[in-house]
Amino acid sequence: MEIIKTDIPEVMHIHPKVFGDDRGFFMETYSTERYKAAGINMDFVQDNHSRSAHGVLRGLHYQLKYPQGKLVRVVSGVVFDVAVDIRVGSPTFGKAVWSILSAGMKNQFWVPPGFAHGFCVVSESADFEYKCTDYYHPEDEGAVLWNDPELSIPWPLDKPLLSAKDSAARALADIPKSELPVYQG
Question: How many domains are there within the chain?
Fold first, then answer.
C-alpha cells in the first residue's frame, strides 16, 4: 500500500497493492492493521454505496456533532473528489485538497472527521463506496457551497447537477463558527 500525504497532512491518497493477471485482479480494500500503521486509526461503523450520473455533484457535506471520517473509493467510473478543512482553529482552515478517483486506478482517498467532503462525476456514471467512522445523522448534516470562490476548488464542471440542499448551501465565511467542527489539535 502506498500512502501519499496531501497539503493537509491528515488527508491522504491511498494506493492499495493490486495483484493482477490475465484472469483479473485482487486487492485488499481495507485491513485494520495496515491502515492503522498508515495513520488511519479509526473504527469504521458504516459502509455506503452511491451511484450517480455524469455531471452530478454531491457536497460539500459535513457533520457537526457526529463527524464522519470517510475512506472513499470508486468501483465504477471516475470522480473528482474534494476534502475541505472546516475545523475552526485548524492551521489549514479553509484549505481544500482533491483527488481523481477511478475504478481503473483502484485508488482511495482518506477524508478525516471534521472535513467537508464532496465529489462530482466526470464519467458517464460512477459507483462510489465509502467506509464511515460514525453513523449518518441527517439532522446533523451541514453543507458548504460547492463553488465558494474562497476555496479555489478547480471543479471540472461549470454547471453540475445539484440537489436542492446543495444549491442552497452557504459559503464557508457565511457559516457561523458555532456551526462548524472544532480543531482538536
Answer: 1
The tens digit of pLDDT for each residue in 25-45 reads: 999 999 999 999 999 999 999
Span 79-93, pLDDT tens digits: 999 999 999 999 999
Q: Residues 13, 62, 117, 130: which is the catalytic one? A: 130
pLDDT digits (tens, 9 = 90+) for 97-111: 999 999 999 999 999
DSSP string, 44-78: --EEEEEEEETTBEEEEEEESSS---EEEEEEESE
61 has catalytic annotation: yes
Does residue 16 belong to any structural domain of this protein? no
The CATH number that applies at residue 107 is 2.60.120.10
Cell numbers linked to 181: 467542527
Q: Is 12 left (phi over 0), alpha (psi -120 to 50) or beta?
A: beta
Q: Is 21 exposed, middle or buried (0-12, 13-18, 19+ CB in 10 A)?
A: exposed
Specify the pTM. 0.94
Is residue 136 part of the annotated active site? The answer reads no
